[in-house]
Specification:
CATH superfamily of the largest domain: MoaB/Mog-like domain
Number of helices: 7
Low-confidence stretches: none
CATH class of the largest domain: Alpha Beta
Strand content: 25-35%
Mean pLDDT: 92
CATH topology of the largest domain: Molybdenum Cofactor Biosythetic Enzyme, Chain A
Radius of gyration: 31 Å
CATH architecture of the largest domain: 3-Layer(aba) Sandwich
Distance between the termini: 46 Å
Structural class: alpha/beta
């Protein structure tokens, strides 16, 4: 009997083919106040030291340590105050033996300082003198020039996501703009006469268009922008017209109409658009009827309409594609071994993607169980999952206690 699956790619073959169609996206410079969530496209090098000068780490008195080594509450050391330096002002004198300068937190310390005595270890006295009633270690309470960052040091490497923390670092070093990869634009199209807007009451035979919102959320979690192409009716012309409106998108993702039924028009619409179709199904479950091709070099996906199939296919193919466009070194991300906590029935011949609940243990190991029933229409199996359990194509059933590979649902960062 002829093998009907010989022309259907495996999961690994399909993924490799998909990833071969793109290269890293171009760099743009964005203002620092709009940079959060973007991915840095090149190493960023400090152009100056941080801090830029030696400064006080707390309110107190700049001293030469040798002058206060013997200070105790019983035998305080009297010392003359030469100056009072608030933050933002420069000292007007060099520190001499037997003298001190009052400094505020962040203020430059005068030349010759080798420690700052906290104000709590001092007492006021007559004139410009203070009593030092305790000592500190040499170099205590001073932030030294370049202690945090040195000029010429790489402060953020390519592939780093811009966060509020490193925005503070960039601002401290005077970066007005940040070189980042342009955010990929993902065109999302749902199709099906049965779909109605989520704010409309249900009528017999209709379902709400949940896939668009799920895919939009997934794309945005991947640091991508969304081009919403709306909902197409089950007609070739409506599908093609809406896809044409996605010219500015870098990737087109369609959901629904990818199977071989009488009302599945996606493949015919792709043909009308001269999409170079690479495959129309994959040896996997769920999501076997998955169309992939390129249109003028742009990746185009036709995902099954069942919510779980749509979700899994986006996670396993579109997310790695976005990661490659953002020039991550590793496209196989968040995969870990885990001990299975229940039996899973499976026949060899296709890769199975099982929605699972993984638990991380103190020793760094994972255990995992399924979310329960695995029908491709059960949206709760997505909502309750934090991972996808991978059962390889050539494997059979997996027994409780065996090791399986899980794919955690964190999308971008390692």
């Amino acid at each position: 009997m002829m093998d009907q699956t010989k022309d259907i790619p495996s999961y690994e073959e399909a993924k490799s083919l998909i990833l071969s169609t793109v290269k890293p996206i171009e760099t743009v410079y964005v203002p620092i106040k709009k940079a959060q969530g973007n991915i840095i496209s090149q190493d960023i090098v400090a152009g100056e030291n941080l801090p830029p000068f030696n400064n006080a780490a707390m309110d107190g008195y700049a001293v030469k340590i040798k002058n206060i080594l013997s200070a105790t509450p019983e035998k305080p050391v009297l010392i003359d105050t030469l100056d009072d330096v608030p933050a933002g002002k420069l000292p007007t004198t060099r520190l001499r033996s037997g003298t001190t300068v009052k400094v505020m937190t962040g203020a430059p310390v005068p030349e010759g300082t080798d420690a700052v005595v906290p104000v709590e270890l001092t007492e006021p006295t007559y004139g410009n003198r203070i009593k030092v009633v305790g000592t500190v270690d040499e170099l205590a309470n001073i932030r030294f020039v370049g202690e945090d960052v040195q000029k010429g040091e790489v402060i953020l490497t390519a592939g780093t996501e811009v966060t509020f923390g490193n925005i503070g670092l960039l601002a401290a070093l005077g970066f007005i703009e940040v070189p980042v990869f342009r955010r990929p634009r993902i065109g999302i199209l749902a199709s099906g006469d049965e779909l109605i807007p989520i704010d409309k009451p249900l009528s017999p035979g209709k379902i709400r268009n949940s896939n668009t919102y799920m895919l939009m959320a997934l794309a945005q979690a991947c640091n991508a922008d969304v081009v919403n192409l709306g909902v197409a009716k089950d007609s070739i012309s409506d599908i093609t017209n809406r896809i044409k409106k996605g010219d500015e998108a870098d990737i087109i993702v369609c959901t629904g109409g990818a199977s071989m039924g009488d009302r599945d028009f996606l493949k015919k619409a792709f043909a009308e658009l001269n999409v170079q179709i690479k495959f129309t199904s994959v040896r996997q479950k769920p999501g076997k009827p998955l169309i992939f091709g390129t249109m003028d070099g742009k990746p185009v996906f036709g995902l099954p309409g069942n919510p779980v199939s749509t979700f899994v296919s986006f996670m396993e193919y579109v997310v790695p594609l976005i990661r490659k466009m953002l020039d991550y070194d590793k496209t196989d991300y968040h995969y870990f071994p885990a001990e299975l906590q229940e039996d899973i029935q499976k026949k060899p011949g296709s890769t199975h993607f099982i929605r699972g609940i993984a638990t991380l243990h103190p020793d760094g190991s994972y255990t995992v169980k399924t979310t329960g029933k695995q029908s491709s229409g059960l949206m709760t199996s997505i909502a309750n999952a934090n991972c996808i359990i991978h059962l390889d194509e050539n494997s059979g059933s997996a027994a409780k206690g065996s090791k399986v590979r899980i794919h955690l649902m964190n999308l971008i960062q390692p």
